[in-house]
């Protein structure tokens, strides 16, 4: 049995697989987000307790020996811990917006641009650079008390195993890593005013260990840490060949394209995620809001998730003139452009508009945002899709039409699956990767609807340009 652990933003999951990649069982536990005045935080103890609960529940359900475990989790944010790996304060989430004023300053004075040209990382308020600078300015006591500024999965790995504090190149990619040397760029640390906090950055390593008498896993279990959830999902869907892409329709709408071309001269947006293979990167355009935008609209209109497919069938492409720019995150947008003050817009609504119109317009808006990101990331090959949104067949058909290409839909716990494949690679365990990453369905676009959405996409881009102008004035 192989176990993948995925410490998500709102849900912690553990999945068990057999040696062919068949998903045997899944355990999940929700974790809370605390939102107040632009601050988005998580209780680290709650997160870690949830990890233990899903592991204990999973291993008790399937009492087979655990040959190997892999760990992944949400990226970015700041998880401050002391020398024993214990929380100094609640974690600042990747969704946090408190550092937007610092980012505004860096956008204006050229720091943002310089950092991108050195690292391929387009900073956003919830990434470690701005957050650490904010803490240094407004809450220095927290940094004084901390030994390390970790990422989510690293905190969990440290607690599970007692292993020395490390991170991997994927999490380190934003915003301090030089993707060519795969080491921290001290000039970037200096540009962000953090040279005196340089010691908080975790060492970059290849963290693998064996759990002997630690929590959550049977004694003797081999476990590897990382990569974080976006590159883990790429592994779990088989997206490794240059030009192939992945769209993750989850809380974050993430677009990834595998590449061997490191172009730091392009538009300063998204990031290059370093992978376990030197010279191979994922060009990532992780938009801030995916299913979270639809969740907000559903909650506001009183519609349940299981009603979405039927409602999408009630209204035609174009949603009877209703349009949604789906930029709902309190920290604005980070891909395929950075606009900290951008907010969602709903237009074309009248007394004749229906709930179905609102739902379809939201799904279409998310689809247009995905198309924008994938084009910017350089998609030329096949496209895989995973995430919670894949549970809606009607939404997948709509996405295929909006994107104008077939979708390789991979269902199940894709991040956990990728974590196992990464662990197998690191420990030298031979698994049939093609079998582990086989799609569950292929959704083809409808030619007529795809043609309609080509024009509608141009309209989306025009409205977005106007909204970005308003956000800056």
TrEMBL record:
Q: Which InterPro entries match?
A: ATPase_NBD (IPR043129), Carb_kinase_FGGY (IPR000577), FGGY_C (IPR018485), FGGY_Carb_Kinase (IPR050406), FGGY_N (IPR018484)
* Family matches, as Pfam families: FGGY_C, FGGY_N
Carbohydrate kinase FGGY N-terminal domain residues are 1-204
UniProt-listed Enzyme Commission number(s): 2.7.1.-
Enumerate the transmembrane spans: none
Keywords of this entry: Kinase, Transferase
One GO molecular function term of this record is: kinase activity
Name of the top EC class for this enzyme = transferase
Which Gene3D superfamilies did the record assign? 3.30.420.40
Record domain Carbohydrate kinase FGGY C-terminal: where: 249-424
Q: Which SUPFAM superfamilies match?
A: Actin-like ATPase domain (SSF53067)
What family is this protein classified in?
Answer: Belongs to the FGGY kinase family.
Put simply, this protein is called FGGY-family carbohydrate kinase
Lineage per the UniProt record: Bacteria, Bacillati, Actinomycetota, Actinomycetes, Kitasatosporales
């Amino acid at each position: 049995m192989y176990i993948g652990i995925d410490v998500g933003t709102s849900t912690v999951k553990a999945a068990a697989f057999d040696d062919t990649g068949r998903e045997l069982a899944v355990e999940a536990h929700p974790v809370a987000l605390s939102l107040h005045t632009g601050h988005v935080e998580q209780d680290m103890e709650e997160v870690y307790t949830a990890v233990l609960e899903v592991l204990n529940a999973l291993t008790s359900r399937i009492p087979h020996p655990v040959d190997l475990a892999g760990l992944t989790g949400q990226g970015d944010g700041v998880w401050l811990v002391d020398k024993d790996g214990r929380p100094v304060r609640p974690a600042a989430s990747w969704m946090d917006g408190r550092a937007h004023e610092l980012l505004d300053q860096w956008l204006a004075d050229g720091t943002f641009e310089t950092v991108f040209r050195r690292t391929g990382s387009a900073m956003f308020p919830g990434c470690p650079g701005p957050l650490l600078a904010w803490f240094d300015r407004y809450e220095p006591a927290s940094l004084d008390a901390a030994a390390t500024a970790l990422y989510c999965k690293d905190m969990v790995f440290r607690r599970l195993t007692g292993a020395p504090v490390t991170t991997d190149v994927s999490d380190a990619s934003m915003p301090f890593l030089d993707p060519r040397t795969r080491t921290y760029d001290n000039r970037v640390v200096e540009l962000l005013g953090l040279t005196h906090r340089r010691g908080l950055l975790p060492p970059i390593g290849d963290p693998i260990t064996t759990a002997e008498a630690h929590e959550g896993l049977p004694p003797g279990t081999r476990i590897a840490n990382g990569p974080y959830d976006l590159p883990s999902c790429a592994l779990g869907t088989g997206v490794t060949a240059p030009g192939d892409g992945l769209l993750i329709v989850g809380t974050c709408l993430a677009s990834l394209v595998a590449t061997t071309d490191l172009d730091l001269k392009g538009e300063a947006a998204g990031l290059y995620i370093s992978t376990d293979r030197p010279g191979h990167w994922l060009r990532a355009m992780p938009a801030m809001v995916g299913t979270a935008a639809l969740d907000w609209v559903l909650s506001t209109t009183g519609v349940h998730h299981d009603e979405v497919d039927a409602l999408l069938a009630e209204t035609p492409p174009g949603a009877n003139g209703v349009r949604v720019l789906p930029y709902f995150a309190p920290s604005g947008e980070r891909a395929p452009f950075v606009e900290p003050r951008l907010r969602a817009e709903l237009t074309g609504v009248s007394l004749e508009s229906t709930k179905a119109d609102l739902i379809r317009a939201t799904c279409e808006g998310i689809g247009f945002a995905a198309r924008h990101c994938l084009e910017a990331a350089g998609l030329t090959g096949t496209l895989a899709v995973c995430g919670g949104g894949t549970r809606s067949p009607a939404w997948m058909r709509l996405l295929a039409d909006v994107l104008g290409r077939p979708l390789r839909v991979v269902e199940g716990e894709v991040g956990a699956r990728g974590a196992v494949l990464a662990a197998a690679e690191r420990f030298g365990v031979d698994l049939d990767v093609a079998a582990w990453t086989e799609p569950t369905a292929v959704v083809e676009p409808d030619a007529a609807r795809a043609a309609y959405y080509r024009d509608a996409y141009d309209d989306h881009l025009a409205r977005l340009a106007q909204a970005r102008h308003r956000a800056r004035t």
